[in-house]
Amino acid sequence: MDILLKDYFKLAYQNARHRKLRSWLTMIGIFIGIAAVVALISLSQGLQSAIAEQFVSLGSDKVIIQAVGSGFGPPGTGAETPITTSDEEVIEKVKGVDNAVGRLIRSVKLEFEEQTKYPFAASLPEDDEDIDLAIEANNYEIEQGRLLKKGDKFKVMIGHNFAEDFFDNSILLRDKILIEDVDFKVIGILKKSGNPQQDETLVVPEAAFREILNIEEDYDIIPAKVNAGEDIAIVTESIKKALRKHRDVEEGKEDFTVETPESIIATLNTILLIVQGVLVGIAAISLVVGGIGIMNTMYTAVVERTKEIGIMKATGAKNKQILSLFIIESGLLGLIGGIIGVSLGIGISKSVEFIAFQIYGALLIQAEVNFWLLLGMLTFGFIIGALSGALPAKQAAALKPVDALRK
Predict the structure, then answer these.
(1) Which of 67, 240, 332, 371 gives the lowest tally of CB atoms within 10 Å of its CB?
(2) What is the mean pLDDT of the chain?
(3) Does the reported pTM lie above 0.85?
(4) Strand-pair category, 115-117 with 110-112
(5) Do 202 and 331 fall into the same domain?
(6) Of 196, 226, 260, at which residue does a domain stop?
């Protein structure tokens, strides 16, 4: 008795439909696991792309220097030996460096209309050339008013979200705010960028920043621009060498870091891959549970369909045909679970993308749906189903026609 492949799938599909509730319960573990994997991977890939785009806007001709910190928070937080104005001078003298701009990032006391909060504020340098580099490095674009310029001591510019949502009432252009009990005038509101850090920024002229916080020489971060045509890797090593000599530290024991956008992206991608691996590993537990569910269902099917198997074998069905039928049936359950899981996973990731867009007003978090990921998950669903049904199928094929017909 010859059976075509399409007949196997037709019989398998009819058997699955016959036991609808049990089939659905069997597939739950499969489609939950696959949905979780698809959603997590597509979102993490989208996050990697978003991070890369942020650093592309920073530019490939810049390096970031900061002190090694001992805690969480902005650059330089908790550093035992902060970077200083003298470090900035050393960096600017390094061959290949066009300009270096030190910046402060500190928590400040902020008051507006009888409300008090403690946000982080960033400094902006005083020199015109340094201001231009800071604006370029952070991609500041003005929406209302103007950008800070030389001589704007007690004036500030703020991010779009900071103006709209930080206090109960919106901060408007030319409003007065108190920073560390000192009056500052809002002279610029930045365009919404979709980057939460930038959209919630508070930028204060460096001279005023140092005065209100009583900071003399420290910096928290120093972005440096490399001359056109210079090898950024060579310049980076030159900066490290110069700072080691200036700060009197040995190689390998540096109390500072010098990073390029590429190295920062590589580090973040490594972290994302580790997190992604852990989350996918947790999701895989659901796939194992789904596989056990399919195995249990197929064992039950063997018991329920003993007489049917006996009739098939009595009419000429061979062991390999019975085996194939049960393996394809269990594989089909896994495949259907995979289809549902993939659809659910895409729906979850796209929902997260939509919600993020509503919150941030930009596609900061995107779901990147990879065709090969979807194909792989569908194939995986079928394979895990088929493997889970292998032992029950073997048991079904081993039944003797006479014994099967007696039951």
Answers:
(1) 371
(2) 80
(3) no
(4) antiparallel
(5) no
(6) 260
